[in-house]
Predict the 3D structure of the following.
Amino acid sequence: MKITPIEYLKERLEPEQFKKIAVINNSELHEFLAKYIKLLNPSKIFVATDSHEDEEYIRKKAIEYGEEKSLATPGHTVHFDNYYDQARDKANTKILVPKGVDLGSFINTKDREEGLREIHELMEDIMVGKELFILFFVLGPKNSVFTIPAVQLTDSAYVAHSEFLLYRKGYEEFKRLGREAKFLKFVHSAGELDERKRSKNLDKRRIYIDLESETVYSVNTQYGGNTIGLKKLAFRLTIRRAVKEGWLSEHMFLMRVNGPEGRKTYFTGAFPSMCGKTSTSMIPWENIVGDDLAFIVDMKGEARGANVEAGVFGIIHGINKEDDPIIWEVLHSPNEIIFSNVLIKDGKPYWTGMGEEIPDKGENHSGKWWKGKKDAEGNEIPPSHKNARFTVRLDAFPNLDKEALDAPCGVKIGGMIYGGRDKDTWPPVREAFDWTHGVITMGAALESETTAATLGKEGVRQFNPMSILDFLSVPIGEYIQNYIRFGERLREKPKIFAVNYFLRDENGNWLNDKLDKAVWLKWMELRVHGDVDAIETPIGYIPKYEDLKRLFKQVLNKEYKREDYEKQFMIRVPELLAKIDRIERIYREKVKDTPEVLFRVLEEERKRLLEARKKYEDYISPFQFERA
Ligand code: SPV
Ligand code: MN
Protein backbone atom coordinates (compact mmCIF):
# COMPACT_ATOMS: atom_id res chain seq x y z
CA MET A 1 0.00 0.00 0.00
CA LYS A 2 1.33 3.44 -0.91
CA ILE A 3 1.83 5.70 2.07
CA THR A 4 0.89 9.38 2.04
CA PRO A 5 3.57 12.10 2.17
CA ILE A 6 2.76 12.97 5.75
CA GLU A 7 3.00 9.30 6.74
CA TYR A 8 6.36 9.09 5.02
CA LEU A 9 7.59 12.18 6.86
CA LYS A 10 6.47 10.68 10.14
CA GLU A 11 8.57 7.63 9.40
CA ARG A 12 11.67 9.56 8.37
CA LEU A 13 11.77 12.38 10.92
CA GLU A 14 12.44 12.22 14.65
CA PRO A 15 9.14 12.88 16.49
CA GLU A 16 10.36 16.29 17.67
CA GLN A 17 11.20 17.36 14.12
CA PHE A 18 8.09 15.82 12.61
CA LYS A 19 5.88 17.82 14.98
CA LYS A 20 7.25 21.05 13.52
CA ILE A 21 6.21 20.02 10.01
CA ALA A 22 2.88 18.45 10.92
CA VAL A 23 1.49 21.72 12.29
CA ILE A 24 1.92 23.44 8.91
CA ASN A 25 -1.32 22.81 7.10
CA ASN A 26 -0.02 22.63 3.53
CA SER A 27 -0.13 19.35 1.63
CA GLU A 28 1.97 20.73 -1.24
CA LEU A 29 4.75 21.38 1.27
CA HIS A 30 4.44 17.88 2.71
CA GLU A 31 4.57 16.36 -0.74
CA PHE A 32 7.65 18.40 -1.68
CA LEU A 33 9.47 17.47 1.53
CA ALA A 34 8.63 13.78 1.22
CA LYS A 35 9.77 13.66 -2.40
CA TYR A 36 13.14 15.27 -1.74
CA ILE A 37 13.90 13.54 1.53
CA LYS A 38 13.42 10.28 -0.32
CA LEU A 39 15.71 11.39 -3.16
CA LEU A 40 18.46 13.05 -1.13
CA ASN A 41 18.35 10.37 1.56
CA PRO A 42 19.96 12.32 4.44
CA SER A 43 21.12 10.50 7.55
CA LYS A 44 19.72 13.18 9.83
CA ILE A 45 17.04 15.84 9.45
CA PHE A 46 16.62 19.12 11.29
CA VAL A 47 13.62 21.41 10.89
CA ALA A 48 14.25 25.02 11.89
CA THR A 49 11.43 27.06 13.37
CA ASP A 50 11.80 30.78 14.08
CA SER A 51 13.13 30.10 17.59
CA HIS A 52 16.50 31.34 18.80
CA GLU A 53 17.42 27.80 19.83
CA ASP A 54 16.92 26.47 16.31
CA GLU A 55 19.02 29.28 14.86
CA GLU A 56 21.69 28.62 17.43
CA TYR A 57 21.62 24.94 16.44
CA ILE A 58 22.47 25.89 12.84
CA ARG A 59 25.28 28.23 13.93
CA LYS A 60 26.79 25.44 16.04
CA LYS A 61 26.52 22.92 13.23
CA ALA A 62 28.38 25.23 10.84
CA ILE A 63 31.33 25.10 13.25
CA GLU A 64 30.93 21.44 14.20
CA TYR A 65 30.84 20.28 10.56
CA GLY A 66 33.85 22.50 9.75
CA GLU A 67 32.17 24.75 7.18
CA GLU A 68 32.92 27.77 9.36
CA LYS A 69 35.61 28.55 11.91
CA SER A 70 35.34 31.00 14.78
CA LEU A 71 37.52 34.10 14.65
CA ALA A 72 38.94 36.21 17.48
CA THR A 73 36.08 38.74 17.59
CA PRO A 74 32.90 37.28 19.12
CA GLY A 75 30.30 36.49 16.45
CA HIS A 76 32.83 36.46 13.62
CA THR A 77 33.38 33.30 11.59
CA VAL A 78 35.15 32.48 8.34
CA HIS A 79 34.04 30.20 5.54
CA PHE A 80 36.08 29.11 2.51
CA ASP A 81 34.70 28.07 -0.85
CA ASN A 82 36.66 25.84 -3.20
CA TYR A 83 39.40 27.79 -5.02
CA TYR A 84 37.43 27.32 -8.25
CA ASP A 85 34.03 28.00 -6.67
CA GLN A 86 34.44 31.72 -5.94
CA ALA A 87 31.65 33.26 -8.00
CA ARG A 88 28.36 32.66 -9.74
CA ASP A 89 28.74 29.87 -12.27
CA LYS A 90 27.07 31.43 -15.28
CA ALA A 91 27.83 28.57 -17.65
CA ASN A 92 26.14 25.96 -15.50
CA THR A 93 23.19 28.06 -14.38
CA LYS A 94 20.28 27.30 -16.65
CA ILE A 95 16.60 28.03 -16.90
CA LEU A 96 14.71 24.82 -17.67
CA VAL A 97 12.22 25.33 -20.47
CA PRO A 98 9.60 23.01 -21.90
CA LYS A 99 9.91 22.15 -25.60
CA GLY A 100 8.97 25.01 -27.90
CA VAL A 101 9.63 27.80 -25.37
CA ASP A 102 12.16 30.41 -26.55
CA LEU A 103 13.47 32.92 -24.00
CA GLY A 104 15.81 34.61 -26.49
CA SER A 105 19.54 34.50 -27.10
CA PHE A 106 20.63 36.23 -23.86
CA ILE A 107 19.23 33.58 -21.53
CA ASN A 108 21.00 30.29 -20.85
CA THR A 109 18.36 27.56 -21.09
CA LYS A 110 18.10 23.80 -21.12
CA ASP A 111 15.35 21.39 -22.07
CA ARG A 112 13.22 20.97 -18.96
CA GLU A 113 12.80 17.22 -19.04
CA GLU A 114 16.47 16.61 -19.70
CA GLY A 115 17.54 19.08 -17.02
CA LEU A 116 15.22 17.67 -14.39
CA ARG A 117 16.43 14.16 -15.16
CA GLU A 118 20.07 15.19 -14.90
CA ILE A 119 19.70 17.14 -11.66
CA HIS A 120 17.63 14.43 -9.99
CA GLU A 121 20.28 11.88 -10.91
CA LEU A 122 23.01 14.09 -9.50
CA MET A 123 21.07 14.51 -6.27
CA GLU A 124 20.13 10.91 -5.67
CA ASP A 125 21.44 9.75 -2.26
CA ILE A 126 23.72 12.79 -2.17
CA MET A 127 22.99 13.41 1.54
CA VAL A 128 23.81 9.94 2.79
CA GLY A 129 25.93 10.50 5.89
CA LYS A 130 24.89 14.15 6.07
CA GLU A 131 22.33 16.26 7.89
CA LEU A 132 19.53 17.96 5.97
CA PHE A 133 18.33 21.33 7.19
CA ILE A 134 14.75 22.31 6.38
CA LEU A 135 14.36 26.07 6.62
CA PHE A 136 11.55 28.58 6.20
CA PHE A 137 11.98 32.22 5.23
CA VAL A 138 10.09 35.00 3.50
CA LEU A 139 11.13 37.46 0.84
CA GLY A 140 10.07 41.01 1.63
CA PRO A 141 8.61 42.22 4.94
CA LYS A 142 6.41 39.72 6.79
CA ASN A 143 2.64 39.64 6.41
CA SER A 144 2.66 42.30 3.70
CA VAL A 145 1.79 42.64 0.02
CA PHE A 146 5.46 41.96 -0.71
CA THR A 147 5.74 38.70 1.24
CA ILE A 148 6.75 35.60 -0.70
CA PRO A 149 7.31 32.49 1.44
CA ALA A 150 10.10 30.10 0.58
CA VAL A 151 11.37 26.77 1.82
CA GLN A 152 15.03 25.81 1.59
CA LEU A 153 16.49 22.32 1.80
CA THR A 154 20.26 22.23 2.20
CA ASP A 155 22.99 20.05 3.66
CA SER A 156 25.21 23.08 4.17
CA ALA A 157 25.06 24.66 7.61
CA TYR A 158 26.98 27.61 6.10
CA VAL A 159 24.21 28.23 3.56
CA ALA A 160 21.58 27.85 6.30
CA HIS A 161 23.48 30.22 8.58
CA SER A 162 23.85 32.77 5.76
CA GLU A 163 20.11 32.69 5.17
CA PHE A 164 19.42 33.39 8.83
CA LEU A 165 21.55 36.51 8.49
CA LEU A 166 20.09 37.61 5.17
CA TYR A 167 16.34 36.89 5.36
CA ARG A 168 13.33 37.24 7.58
CA LYS A 169 12.30 34.06 9.34
CA GLY A 170 9.27 32.38 7.79
CA TYR A 171 8.22 29.36 9.83
CA GLU A 172 5.40 31.22 11.60
CA GLU A 173 4.32 32.67 8.24
CA PHE A 174 4.01 29.15 6.81
CA LYS A 175 1.93 28.17 9.82
CA ARG A 176 -0.24 31.27 9.51
CA LEU A 177 -0.74 30.94 5.76
CA GLY A 178 -1.27 27.17 5.73
CA ARG A 179 -2.52 26.06 2.34
CA GLU A 180 -2.59 29.69 1.14
CA ALA A 181 1.21 29.82 1.04
CA LYS A 182 2.27 30.10 -2.59
CA PHE A 183 5.88 29.32 -1.85
CA LEU A 184 9.20 29.06 -3.69
CA LYS A 185 11.32 25.94 -3.26
CA PHE A 186 15.07 25.52 -3.11
CA VAL A 187 16.97 22.25 -3.03
CA HIS A 188 20.70 22.48 -2.44
CA SER A 189 23.48 20.06 -1.73
CA ALA A 190 27.15 21.01 -1.45
CA GLY A 191 27.85 17.44 -2.55
CA GLU A 192 30.95 15.59 -1.52
CA LEU A 193 33.34 17.75 0.55
CA ASP A 194 37.14 17.76 0.62
CA GLU A 195 39.28 17.80 3.77
CA ARG A 196 38.74 21.55 4.12
CA LYS A 197 34.95 21.01 3.90
CA ARG A 198 34.56 22.56 0.49
CA SER A 199 32.55 21.23 -2.45
CA LYS A 200 34.76 18.82 -4.33
CA ASN A 201 32.96 17.76 -7.51
CA LEU A 202 32.90 21.08 -9.32
CA ASP A 203 32.69 19.33 -12.69
CA LYS A 204 29.20 18.32 -11.58
CA ARG A 205 28.23 21.79 -10.35
CA ARG A 206 24.74 22.65 -11.63
CA ILE A 207 22.19 25.35 -10.86
CA TYR A 208 18.91 24.60 -12.62
CA ILE A 209 15.86 26.79 -12.38
CA ASP A 210 12.46 25.24 -12.98
CA LEU A 211 10.01 28.06 -13.60
CA GLU A 212 6.99 25.82 -13.85
CA SER A 213 7.22 24.38 -10.32
CA GLU A 214 9.04 27.45 -8.95
CA THR A 215 11.86 25.22 -7.75
CA VAL A 216 15.60 25.86 -7.98
CA TYR A 217 18.14 23.05 -7.71
CA SER A 218 21.77 23.69 -6.87
CA VAL A 219 24.42 21.03 -6.43
CA ASN A 220 28.18 20.59 -5.90
CA THR A 221 28.80 24.23 -5.00
CA GLN A 222 28.88 26.40 -1.87
CA TYR A 223 29.49 29.95 -3.14
CA GLY A 224 26.57 32.07 -1.90
CA GLY A 225 25.46 33.38 -5.30
CA ASN A 226 24.99 29.75 -6.41
CA THR A 227 23.46 28.38 -3.23
CA ILE A 228 21.64 30.91 -1.07
CA GLY A 229 18.19 30.10 -2.40
CA LEU A 230 16.47 33.33 -1.50
CA LYS A 231 19.08 35.53 -3.18
CA LYS A 232 19.85 35.15 -6.87
CA LEU A 233 18.06 31.81 -7.27
CA ALA A 234 14.74 33.20 -6.04
CA PHE A 235 15.38 36.32 -8.11
CA ARG A 236 14.87 34.37 -11.36
CA LEU A 237 11.52 33.16 -10.06
CA THR A 238 10.33 36.52 -8.75
CA ILE A 239 11.23 38.30 -12.00
CA ARG A 240 8.86 35.94 -13.75
CA ARG A 241 6.13 36.38 -11.15
CA ALA A 242 6.52 40.15 -11.40
CA VAL A 243 6.22 40.20 -15.18
CA LYS A 244 3.17 37.94 -15.04
CA GLU A 245 1.49 39.98 -12.31
CA GLY A 246 2.51 43.46 -13.40
CA TRP A 247 4.97 44.60 -10.72
CA LEU A 248 8.78 44.92 -10.62
CA SER A 249 11.37 42.59 -9.07
CA GLU A 250 14.67 44.40 -9.49
CA HIS A 251 18.43 44.12 -8.96
CA MET A 252 18.39 47.38 -7.02
CA PHE A 253 19.42 48.94 -3.76
CA LEU A 254 16.85 50.88 -1.77
CA MET A 255 18.01 53.95 0.15
CA ARG A 256 16.78 57.09 1.80
CA VAL A 257 18.18 60.43 0.73
CA ASN A 258 17.73 63.11 3.35
CA GLY A 259 16.38 66.35 1.92
CA PRO A 260 15.94 69.81 3.45
CA GLU A 261 14.05 70.11 6.74
CA GLY A 262 14.01 66.41 7.51
CA ARG A 263 12.39 65.39 4.23
CA LYS A 264 12.88 61.68 3.47
CA THR A 265 13.00 60.63 -0.17
CA TYR A 266 13.55 57.03 -1.22
CA PHE A 267 15.54 55.92 -4.24
CA THR A 268 16.23 52.60 -5.86
CA GLY A 269 19.40 52.04 -7.88
CA ALA A 270 20.53 49.45 -10.42
CA PHE A 271 24.26 49.13 -11.09
CA PRO A 272 26.23 46.20 -12.53
CA SER A 273 28.87 44.60 -10.28
CA MET A 274 31.69 46.93 -9.16
CA CYS A 275 30.00 50.14 -10.30
CA GLY A 276 29.36 51.76 -6.94
CA LYS A 277 26.05 50.18 -5.93
CA THR A 278 27.04 49.34 -2.36
CA SER A 279 29.08 52.50 -1.84
CA THR A 280 26.12 54.62 -2.98
CA SER A 281 23.62 52.87 -0.74
CA MET A 282 26.02 53.13 2.24
CA ILE A 283 27.10 56.73 1.70
CA PRO A 284 27.51 58.42 5.11
CA TRP A 285 25.00 61.29 4.67
CA GLU A 286 22.08 59.02 3.84
CA ASN A 287 20.37 55.86 5.14
CA ILE A 288 20.34 52.34 3.83
CA VAL A 289 17.28 50.13 3.42
CA GLY A 290 18.76 47.45 1.15
CA ASP A 291 21.80 46.94 -1.04
CA ASP A 292 20.88 44.33 -3.66
CA LEU A 293 17.25 43.41 -4.38
CA ALA A 294 14.00 45.38 -4.34
CA PHE A 295 10.34 44.64 -4.99
CA ILE A 296 8.34 47.56 -6.35
CA VAL A 297 4.55 47.47 -6.51
CA ASP A 298 1.76 49.83 -7.53
CA MET A 299 -0.20 50.76 -4.41
CA LYS A 300 -3.11 53.08 -5.18
CA GLY A 301 -1.15 54.62 -8.03
CA GLU A 302 2.07 55.08 -6.05
CA ALA A 303 5.24 53.06 -6.67
CA ARG A 304 6.17 51.52 -3.33
CA GLY A 305 9.35 49.58 -2.74
CA ALA A 306 10.67 47.12 -0.17
CA ASN A 307 13.96 45.35 0.43
CA VAL A 308 13.59 41.68 -0.46
CA GLU A 309 16.31 40.85 2.08
CA ALA A 310 17.27 41.85 5.60
CA GLY A 311 21.03 41.49 5.38
CA VAL A 312 24.07 42.19 3.23
CA PHE A 313 26.24 39.73 1.28
CA GLY A 314 28.78 42.36 0.34
CA ILE A 315 32.09 42.49 -1.50
CA ILE A 316 34.88 43.11 1.00
CA HIS A 317 37.67 43.83 -1.51
CA GLY A 318 38.79 47.45 -1.20
CA ILE A 319 36.74 48.29 1.89
CA ASN A 320 38.83 50.67 3.96
CA LYS A 321 38.39 52.93 6.94
CA GLU A 322 38.61 56.14 4.95
CA ASP A 323 36.17 55.51 2.09
CA ASP A 324 33.73 53.20 3.85
CA PRO A 325 33.73 54.26 7.50
CA ILE A 326 30.36 52.70 8.28
CA ILE A 327 31.06 49.26 6.82
CA TRP A 328 34.53 49.34 8.39
CA GLU A 329 33.06 49.92 11.82
CA VAL A 330 30.50 47.13 11.36
CA LEU A 331 33.22 44.70 10.26
CA HIS A 332 35.32 45.55 13.30
CA SER A 333 32.61 45.19 15.94
CA PRO A 334 31.34 42.05 17.64
CA ASN A 335 28.45 41.52 15.20
CA GLU A 336 27.43 38.15 13.81
CA ILE A 337 29.43 38.12 10.56
CA ILE A 338 30.55 35.39 8.16
CA PHE A 339 33.70 36.38 6.29
CA SER A 340 34.25 34.33 3.17
CA ASN A 341 37.41 33.81 1.13
CA VAL A 342 39.50 36.39 3.00
CA LEU A 343 42.95 35.85 4.53
CA ILE A 344 43.01 34.70 8.16
CA LYS A 345 45.98 35.17 10.45
CA ASP A 346 45.74 34.71 14.23
CA GLY A 347 41.96 34.75 14.09
CA LYS A 348 41.79 38.06 12.24
CA PRO A 349 40.44 38.64 8.71
CA TYR A 350 42.46 40.57 6.10
CA TRP A 351 41.60 41.55 2.55
CA THR A 352 43.17 43.30 -0.40
CA GLY A 353 42.67 47.05 -0.41
CA MET A 354 41.86 47.34 3.30
CA GLY A 355 44.50 50.03 3.70
CA GLU A 356 46.36 48.18 6.43
CA GLU A 357 49.41 46.01 6.39
CA ILE A 358 48.50 42.47 5.34
CA PRO A 359 50.45 39.52 6.82
CA ASP A 360 52.52 37.58 4.30
CA LYS A 361 51.19 34.24 5.39
CA GLY A 362 48.00 32.73 6.76
CA GLU A 363 45.04 30.73 5.50
CA ASN A 364 42.87 31.76 2.56
CA HIS A 365 40.70 30.31 -0.23
CA SER A 366 43.74 28.43 -1.54
CA GLY A 367 44.48 26.75 1.82
CA LYS A 368 47.74 27.53 3.57
CA TRP A 369 48.90 30.76 1.94
CA TRP A 370 52.17 32.68 1.71
CA LYS A 371 53.09 35.75 -0.28
CA GLY A 372 54.12 34.72 -3.79
CA LYS A 373 52.20 31.41 -3.73
CA LYS A 374 51.05 30.40 -7.19
CA ASP A 375 47.99 28.41 -8.25
CA ALA A 376 47.92 25.44 -10.64
CA GLU A 377 47.71 27.86 -13.59
CA GLY A 378 50.86 29.68 -12.46
CA ASN A 379 48.99 32.81 -11.32
CA GLU A 380 50.07 34.47 -8.11
CA ILE A 381 47.36 34.07 -5.45
CA PRO A 382 46.38 37.34 -3.76
CA PRO A 383 45.76 37.39 0.01
CA SER A 384 41.98 37.43 -0.51
CA HIS A 385 39.79 36.71 -3.51
CA LYS A 386 38.43 39.72 -5.42
CA ASN A 387 34.93 38.37 -4.76
CA ALA A 388 35.60 37.68 -1.06
CA ARG A 389 32.55 38.72 0.95
CA PHE A 390 31.02 39.47 4.32
CA THR A 391 27.55 38.37 5.37
CA VAL A 392 25.83 40.40 8.07
CA ARG A 393 22.36 41.53 9.17
CA LEU A 394 21.32 45.04 8.22
CA ASP A 395 20.50 45.54 11.90
CA ALA A 396 24.23 45.84 12.50
CA PHE A 397 24.37 49.10 10.50
CA PRO A 398 23.98 52.35 12.44
CA ASN A 399 22.72 54.06 9.25
CA LEU A 400 19.89 51.56 8.68
CA ASP A 401 16.41 53.00 8.14
CA LYS A 402 14.77 50.31 10.25
CA GLU A 403 11.27 51.68 9.87
CA ALA A 404 11.54 51.50 6.08
CA LEU A 405 13.00 47.98 6.24
CA ASP A 406 10.04 46.70 8.25
CA ALA A 407 7.23 48.77 6.66
CA PRO A 408 4.52 46.37 5.44
CA CYS A 409 3.51 48.87 2.75
CA GLY A 410 7.10 49.61 1.80
CA VAL A 411 8.20 53.16 1.07
CA LYS A 412 7.17 55.53 -1.69
CA ILE A 413 9.82 55.55 -4.41
CA GLY A 414 10.74 59.11 -5.43
CA GLY A 415 13.46 58.22 -7.91
CA MET A 416 15.07 55.32 -9.69
CA ILE A 417 18.75 55.45 -10.65
CA TYR A 418 20.69 53.51 -13.29
CA GLY A 419 24.45 53.56 -13.43
CA GLY A 420 27.26 51.79 -15.21
CA ARG A 421 31.01 52.09 -15.75
CA ASP A 422 31.48 54.44 -18.69
CA LYS A 423 34.59 56.47 -19.44
CA ASP A 424 33.35 58.78 -22.16
CA THR A 425 29.61 58.91 -22.87
CA TRP A 426 27.15 59.74 -20.09
CA PRO A 427 27.45 62.84 -17.85
CA PRO A 428 27.78 62.29 -14.06
CA VAL A 429 24.05 62.72 -13.47
CA ARG A 430 20.97 63.45 -15.53
CA GLU A 431 17.22 63.11 -15.32
CA ALA A 432 14.98 61.50 -17.93
CA PHE A 433 12.27 63.54 -19.67
CA ASP A 434 9.67 61.04 -18.50
CA TRP A 435 9.18 57.41 -17.41
CA THR A 436 9.41 55.81 -20.85
CA HIS A 437 12.40 57.94 -21.88
CA GLY A 438 14.19 56.85 -18.71
CA VAL A 439 13.29 53.18 -18.89
CA ILE A 440 14.53 53.00 -22.49
CA THR A 441 17.50 55.36 -22.82
CA MET A 442 18.84 54.77 -19.30
CA GLY A 443 17.63 51.36 -18.03
CA ALA A 444 17.29 49.31 -21.19
CA ALA A 445 20.41 50.96 -22.66
CA LEU A 446 22.63 50.30 -19.65
CA GLU A 447 26.15 49.19 -20.49
CA SER A 448 29.18 48.72 -18.32
CA GLU A 449 32.88 48.36 -19.02
CA THR A 450 34.55 45.16 -17.90
CA THR A 451 36.97 45.53 -15.01
CA ALA A 452 39.98 43.58 -13.80
CA ALA A 453 37.47 41.70 -11.65
CA THR A 454 36.06 39.81 -14.60
CA LEU A 455 37.86 37.54 -17.01
CA GLY A 456 38.94 38.84 -20.39
CA LYS A 457 39.90 42.26 -21.69
CA GLU A 458 39.41 45.34 -19.57
CA GLY A 459 37.36 48.32 -20.68
CA VAL A 460 35.05 46.44 -23.03
CA ARG A 461 31.48 47.70 -22.87
CA GLN A 462 28.93 45.06 -22.03
CA PHE A 463 25.19 45.35 -22.54
CA ASN A 464 23.42 44.88 -19.22
CA PRO A 465 19.86 46.27 -19.27
CA MET A 466 18.72 47.30 -15.77
CA SER A 467 21.82 45.36 -14.56
CA ILE A 468 19.59 42.31 -14.63
CA LEU A 469 20.95 40.37 -17.61
CA ASP A 470 22.52 37.57 -15.56
CA PHE A 471 19.20 36.86 -13.87
CA LEU A 472 16.54 37.26 -16.54
CA SER A 473 14.02 34.44 -16.78
CA VAL A 474 11.66 36.04 -19.29
CA PRO A 475 12.47 37.38 -22.76
CA ILE A 476 14.07 40.87 -22.60
CA GLY A 477 11.30 42.47 -24.63
CA GLU A 478 8.59 41.17 -22.34
CA TYR A 479 10.53 42.38 -19.33
CA ILE A 480 10.88 45.90 -20.77
CA GLN A 481 7.27 46.00 -21.85
CA ASN A 482 6.19 45.19 -18.29
CA TYR A 483 8.42 48.00 -16.98
CA ILE A 484 6.92 50.55 -19.35
CA ARG A 485 3.34 49.53 -18.59
CA PHE A 486 3.99 49.51 -14.85
CA GLY A 487 4.96 53.19 -15.01
CA GLU A 488 2.15 54.17 -17.36
CA ARG A 489 -0.41 52.92 -14.85
CA LEU A 490 1.06 54.91 -11.96
CA ARG A 491 -0.59 58.12 -10.90
CA GLU A 492 2.69 59.37 -9.41
CA LYS A 493 5.67 58.08 -11.36
CA PRO A 494 9.13 58.01 -9.80
CA LYS A 495 11.60 60.22 -11.64
CA ILE A 496 14.27 58.30 -13.50
CA PHE A 497 17.94 59.26 -13.35
CA ALA A 498 21.21 57.97 -14.79
CA VAL A 499 24.58 58.41 -13.13
CA ASN A 500 28.13 57.77 -14.23
CA TYR A 501 30.89 57.80 -11.62
CA PHE A 502 33.59 56.76 -14.08
CA LEU A 503 33.97 59.59 -16.58
CA ARG A 504 37.55 60.32 -17.69
CA ASP A 505 39.28 63.05 -19.65
CA GLU A 506 41.27 62.56 -22.87
CA ASN A 507 44.33 61.57 -20.81
CA GLY A 508 42.45 58.91 -18.89
CA ASN A 509 42.19 60.89 -15.63
CA TRP A 510 39.02 60.57 -13.57
CA LEU A 511 36.80 63.63 -13.89
CA ASN A 512 35.15 63.10 -10.51
CA ASP A 513 36.15 62.27 -6.96
CA LYS A 514 34.74 59.19 -5.27
CA LEU A 515 32.47 61.18 -2.98
CA ASP A 516 30.98 63.47 -5.65
CA LYS A 517 28.08 61.02 -5.80
CA ALA A 518 26.91 62.48 -2.49
CA VAL A 519 26.16 65.71 -4.37
CA TRP A 520 24.41 63.96 -7.25
CA LEU A 521 22.14 62.26 -4.71
CA LYS A 522 21.21 65.56 -3.06
CA TRP A 523 20.51 67.09 -6.49
CA MET A 524 18.26 64.19 -7.48
CA GLU A 525 16.41 64.54 -4.17
CA LEU A 526 15.72 68.20 -4.90
CA ARG A 527 14.58 67.39 -8.44
CA VAL A 528 12.08 64.80 -7.20
CA HIS A 529 10.34 67.64 -5.38
CA GLY A 530 10.85 70.27 -8.07
CA ASP A 531 13.05 72.39 -5.77
CA VAL A 532 15.66 73.23 -8.41
CA ASP A 533 15.52 73.97 -12.12
CA ALA A 534 17.53 72.02 -14.65
CA ILE A 535 18.93 72.44 -18.14
CA GLU A 536 17.24 70.67 -21.01
CA THR A 537 19.67 68.80 -23.28
CA PRO A 538 19.04 66.24 -26.05
CA ILE A 539 19.54 63.39 -23.54
CA GLY A 540 17.52 64.70 -20.59
CA TYR A 541 17.83 67.32 -17.86
CA ILE A 542 21.20 68.11 -16.30
CA PRO A 543 21.98 70.19 -13.18
CA LYS A 544 22.67 73.93 -13.35
CA TYR A 545 26.16 74.97 -12.32
CA GLU A 546 24.94 77.27 -9.52
CA ASP A 547 22.96 74.49 -7.85
CA LEU A 548 25.88 72.08 -7.91
CA LYS A 549 28.28 74.77 -6.69
CA ARG A 550 26.05 75.37 -3.69
CA LEU A 551 25.58 71.63 -3.02
CA PHE A 552 29.33 70.88 -3.29
CA LYS A 553 29.95 73.55 -0.68
CA GLN A 554 27.12 72.37 1.56
CA VAL A 555 27.73 68.63 1.39
CA LEU A 556 31.47 68.25 0.82
CA ASN A 557 32.74 71.73 1.71
CA LYS A 558 34.35 71.81 -1.71
CA GLU A 559 34.75 74.64 -4.22
CA TYR A 560 33.23 73.32 -7.43
CA LYS A 561 34.90 74.98 -10.41
CA ARG A 562 33.06 76.15 -13.50
CA GLU A 563 35.64 74.46 -15.72
CA ASP A 564 35.13 71.14 -13.94
CA TYR A 565 31.38 71.41 -14.38
CA GLU A 566 31.79 72.26 -18.04
CA LYS A 567 34.04 69.26 -18.69
CA GLN A 568 31.91 66.81 -16.73
CA PHE A 569 28.57 67.86 -18.14
CA MET A 570 29.68 68.45 -21.72
CA ILE A 571 27.29 66.74 -24.14
CA ARG A 572 29.49 64.34 -26.10
CA VAL A 573 27.49 63.91 -29.30
CA PRO A 574 29.71 61.42 -31.21
CA GLU A 575 29.90 59.00 -28.25
CA LEU A 576 26.20 59.37 -27.51
CA LEU A 577 25.27 58.66 -31.14
CA ALA A 578 27.58 55.65 -31.23
CA LYS A 579 25.90 54.33 -28.12
CA ILE A 580 22.44 54.65 -29.65
CA ASP A 581 23.67 52.75 -32.72
CA ARG A 582 25.11 49.98 -30.54
CA ILE A 583 22.00 49.61 -28.42
CA GLU A 584 19.65 49.76 -31.38
CA ARG A 585 21.64 47.06 -33.15
CA ILE A 586 21.49 44.75 -30.14
CA TYR A 587 17.72 45.11 -29.87
CA ARG A 588 17.17 44.77 -33.64
CA GLU A 589 19.44 41.78 -34.10
CA LYS A 590 19.33 39.91 -30.83
CA VAL A 591 16.03 40.66 -29.11
CA LYS A 592 13.15 39.33 -31.14
CA ASP A 593 10.38 40.73 -28.98
CA THR A 594 11.61 44.31 -28.55
CA PRO A 595 8.62 46.64 -28.11
CA GLU A 596 8.32 49.15 -30.98
CA VAL A 597 8.38 52.07 -28.55
CA LEU A 598 12.03 51.31 -27.76
CA PHE A 599 13.10 51.99 -31.34
CA ARG A 600 10.94 55.11 -31.50
CA VAL A 601 12.39 56.61 -28.31
CA LEU A 602 15.97 55.86 -29.41
CA GLU A 603 15.25 57.44 -32.80
CA GLU A 604 13.88 60.59 -31.15
CA GLU A 605 17.01 60.88 -29.04
CA ARG A 606 19.20 60.42 -32.12
CA LYS A 607 17.32 63.21 -33.89
CA ARG A 608 17.74 65.59 -30.97
CA LEU A 609 21.48 64.87 -30.89
CA LEU A 610 21.87 65.39 -34.64
CA GLU A 611 20.02 68.70 -34.46
CA ALA A 612 22.15 69.87 -31.56
CA ARG A 613 25.31 68.96 -33.43
CA LYS A 614 24.13 70.96 -36.43
CA LYS A 615 23.34 73.96 -34.28
CA TYR A 616 26.47 73.81 -32.08
CA GLU A 617 29.27 71.31 -32.46
CA ASP A 618 30.34 67.75 -31.57
CA TYR A 619 31.16 68.52 -27.95
CA ILE A 620 28.68 70.97 -26.50
CA SER A 621 29.15 72.94 -23.31
CA PRO A 622 26.21 72.74 -20.90
CA PHE A 623 26.23 76.56 -20.84
CA GLN A 624 25.25 76.57 -24.55
CA PHE A 625 22.01 74.76 -23.69
CA GLU A 626 21.41 76.98 -20.70
CA ARG A 627 21.55 80.09 -22.86
CA ALA A 628 19.27 78.55 -25.49
C1 SPV B 1 26.04 40.13 -7.50
O1 SPV B 1 26.99 39.60 -8.08
O2 SPV B 1 25.25 40.89 -8.08
C2 SPV B 1 25.83 39.88 -6.07
C3 SPV B 1 26.50 38.74 -5.44
O3 SPV B 1 25.03 40.55 -5.44
S1 SPV B 1 25.80 37.24 -5.87
O4 SPV B 1 25.09 36.72 -4.70
O5 SPV B 1 26.86 36.36 -6.25
O6 SPV B 1 24.86 37.44 -6.96
MN1 MN C 1 23.68 41.59 -6.80
